[in-house]
Design brief:
Helix content: 40-55%
Number of strands: 17
Strand order of the largest sheet: 9-12-13-8-7-14-15
Shape: globular
Number of helices: 17
Strand content: 15-25%
Length: about 500
């Protein structure tokens, strides 16, 4: 059997098992879903050492960062799902027109079925668990494909996840591009992919063959607006803290700064101070500073530094041998610079000076919509102007990436930065089909004979239109109350 045949056999077995498990109702009831989520929580808690060791092996990421930015976030989202799942699953009452006033209209959250979850290498643990939590909450099974570029974490999922979750409900498949390609050829009920926009397009093309809905969490060039109303020391510390996390390899990180020309020099000075304060022993020596994922990405980042026409204002050093690249701040960057072409996804921070906030908004409107916009200002007029004048997945005012820690609000991009959303109830709805169920009464057929059947006079047509109008207030209780009042009045008059 050739390699392609082996991959096909693995994929078909995984998808077949997940499909059979879904049809057998293994994740259908509230009790079943709660049990699975609790088991997933045990995995995150009990495998702490294995998780930290795997991520350190892949990315040289310190356990402190893994615990605060991966495990803690996953646990928070599992706890949110456990606390709210009953209300999420409860059918919601739908608004009705007068014509259906005696009937039942409800919206049920129905599981899609089998979901493909493909996760990236930069946060290889969290970005597989995050969608998986929502997939389980919504009552789906899934085929999980961790990134092959983080092999230790991939191995962790293969070896340890089946100890806690049913491997037929949630099988893990491994491999590179051939495996992903074959996986995407299968007929899934939903596909969730986290990664680059270029690969996102490939996923969407593959999904279109079966008209499969997709959730794409992609990224983009996330700007940070900085005006002259704010303490630049605080701005610098917050940007440097997140830009150095994961060596800048985070989709919600600041990709570049747009600051007013009047504060550029002072901002660069404060960034230099912040680097020295947060990494007193030097970035390369710090156990808190990660490494670039692989040689190819290191070469990509180094090429950007070689091609930029900007000024390297801060150079924290590089080492190809260890794939270390410290924070690089580049000033005098123009819109057509190499650093402004695509998402950087690394510890390079271009600074583009602008004359006004309006200039920055105009620049942003001409480009693809980012996953996040960061606004550093105490000027409410500027803040409102940026929020109202731009489009992005999220906006954070006076910080970077803190929205990642929210477990009850939607997280997702728009346009080139993605589609769909997960986290909390938004994630539950994202992996559920909102199915409207109308239950009509078999009685009162005289109304149908009067209003619906056969050709009707114009007056009856107008009445039908009024009766079909749905008003903002669900008036069934008022209708019942009115009928009771009329009934009581008639009874008392006898």
């Amino acid at each position: 059997m050739g390699e392609t045949d082996q991959i096909l056999a693995v994929v078909k077995t995984a998808v077949g098992n997940a499909r059979s498990s879904f049809r057998a109702g293994k994740v259908k009831t509230y009790e079943q879903r709660v049990c699975i989520l609790k088991r997933l929580r045990e995995f995150v808690v009990k495998e702490e050492q294995s998780i930290c060791a795997a991520i350190y092996e892949d990315l040289k990421r310190d356990p402190q960062e893994v615990n605060t930015m991966s495990r803690a976030v996953a646990l928070s989202e599992i706890d949110t799902a456990l606390a709210n799942l009953a209300s999420w699953m409860k059918p919601k009452r739908g608004a009705r027109p007068l014509l259906l006033i005696t009937d039942s209209v409800k919206v049920h959250s129905q599981p899609y079925g089998v979901v493909a979850v493909l996760s990236p290498w930069n946060y290889p643990f969290l970005l597989l668990l995050r969608p998986l939590i929502n997939v389980i909450s919504a009552g789906n099974t899934a085929v999980l494909k961790p990134s092959e570029l983080a092999p230790a974490t991939e191995r962790l999922f293969v070896e340890r996840l089946p100890v806690y979750l049913d491997s037929e409900c949630y099988p893990v498949v491994t491999g590179g591009i051939p495996m992903s390609t074959e996986l995407l050829k299968q007929h899934f009920d939903h596909i969730c992919f986290t990664g680059s926009s270029n690969v996102g397009r490939i996923v969407m093309r593959a999904a279109s063959a079966n008209l499969t809905p997709v959730t794409l969490e992609l990224g983009g060039k996330n700007p940070a607006f900085v005006d002259d109303s704010i303490d630049l020391r605080n701005v610098a510390q917050r940007i440097v803290h997140m830009k150095s996390a994961g060596a800048g390899q985070i989709c919600v990180n600041t990709d570049y700064i747009m600051c007013l020309r009047s504060v550029e020099e002072k901002l660069v000075e404060e960034i230099g101070k912040a680097i020295k304060k947060l990494f007193s022993e030097g970035m390369e020596s710090s156990p808190l500073y990660s490494r670039i994922i692989h040689d190819r990405h290191f070469s990509y980042l180094k090429d950007l530094l070689d091609r930029t026409r900007g000024t390297k204002a801060i150079d924290s050093g590089t080492s190809a041998e260890t794939r270390y690249m410290g924070l690089m701040v580049v000033t005098n960057v123009q819109p057509d610079d190499a650093l402004m072409e695509n998402e950087i996804f690394g510890p390079i921070l271009p600074i583009m000076a602008i004359d006004s906030v309006d200039d920055g908004i105009a620049y942003l409107r001409e480009r693809e919509k980012p996953l996040a916009i960061n606004v550093f200002s105490t000027n409410q007029s500027n803040i409102d102007k940026i929020i109202d004048g731009t489009s992005s997945g999220q906006v954070v005012v006076n910080d970077v990436a803190v929205q990642v820690g929210l477990s009850r609000t939607p997280f997702g991009g728009v346009g080139n930065s993605g589609m769909g959303a997960y986290i909390g109830e938004a994630g539950f709805n994202n992996f559920s089909h909102q199915r409207t169920v109308v239950h009509r009464s078999p009685r009162m057929e005289f109304l149908n004979e009067w209003l619906r059947y056969g050709r009707q006079p114009r007056s009856t047509q107008d009445l039908m239109g009024m009766l079909l109008a749905t008003y903002p207030v669900d008036y069934q209780p008022y209708f019942i109350l009115a009928v009771l009042c009329v009934g009581i009045t008639v009874f008392l008059s006898l």
